[in-house]
Amino acid sequence: MSENTNLAQQEASKRYQSARRKLFIHDLLSLVRGRAPELLSFDSVQAALQAWQQVEKRDLEMVPLNQIVGSVGRYRDFTREFLPKGSISQERWRAVDAAMHSQAGLPPIELYQVGDAYFVRDGNHRVSVARANGLEDIEAYVTRIETPVSIDANTRPEDLLLKTGLAEFLRKTHLEDIRPDAGVEVTEVGSYHDLLQHIEVHRYYLGIEQQREIPWQEAVASWYDYVYLPVAAAIWASPILDRFPGRTAADLYLWVCQHREDLVREGGELPSPVAAVTDLTTEQNESGSRVAQSMKRVLGPRPKTADLAAQAVELTKQEQVIAPIDHPLL
């Protein structure tokens, strides 16, 4: 064994031991802070997002290591930072590290890309070793998986249930094709089912009004334009949107619809979306804690486009945001 080879193996052993010490510290911290984020299972993500269409690229590209957040088959063998767990062979890890520092080097890895996140198809050890060596990028062949529901480096396993709901909602409504800038997302499990029910109810009443069978896609477009968007417009233009961070316009849309229904049940008239949101804002000002506790679905970020925000302000000023079919649910 040459002196250079022996030195490479010694350095590889040091890096492996350092990685294992980091793993020990991370495990201790997770006991205090809660469960540490894990690698995502590619199979679980693919099934959740119904992402089956592949676009393979054979050109090499440099991929940021911190955007590699999952694996096809080894997601239980490494941490989210690709620190090697006990199931990983020390000898193999050290051999990969030594090979990385040899003249021959290592071949590119193979990745799946879903949204802005990457999953290791082949080369888990190489990713682990690269991170242990302080590298920021790695050379890879990438196969892109087409999906309307994007994920990124911050996605956690517990997020997949909501992603599953969004994928199913988009599959049934094709809203991303009908209204590409819609961005209707919720933060509570089950809320996508509620939105689908709203569309079904709107379709039913629209059919009664027009005395004809309403095609599903027409009902989806009508619901978005004349039911969801007016409520969302009032929300976007209201100061209440700044008081409930971490939620979405669709969250508060569902709550406002419930609030309007409650007002009717109490014997009042059905208020317009503007009036309902104004009423909620007034209640929140007078008794913030009570309203905050009762609002299970609330609003966070503003709309994605400036045009929608401007439209919201204009609609609110004119007080002309009433659904074409004014029944309690909508």
Short description:
With about 325 residues, this protein is an alpha/beta fold. The chain has twelve helices and six strands. It has a six-stranded mixed β-sheet.
Report on this structure.
The structure is a single chain. The chain has 330 residues and is of the alpha/beta class. It folds into two domains: 3-146, Conserved hypothetical protein from pyrococcus furiosus pfu- 392566-001, ParB domain, CATH 3.90.1530.10; 174-318, no CATH class. 52% of the residues lie in helices and 12% in strands. The protein is built from twelve helices and six strands. A six-stranded mixed beta sheet has the order 1-3-5-4-6-2. The protein is elongated, with a radius of gyration of 26 Å. The model is unreliable at 287-329 (pLDDT under 50).
Secondary structure topology:
Layout: H1 3-33, E1 40-41, H2 42-49, E2 53-64, E3 68-71, H3 90-100, E4 109-114, E5 117-122, H4 124-132, E6 137-146, H5 160-173, H6 175-178, H7 191-210, H8 216-237, H9 249-265, H10 273-286, H11 288-294, H12 306-318
Helix pairs in contact: 1-3, 2-5, 3-4, 5-7, 7-8, 8-9, 8-10, 8-12, 9-10, 10-11
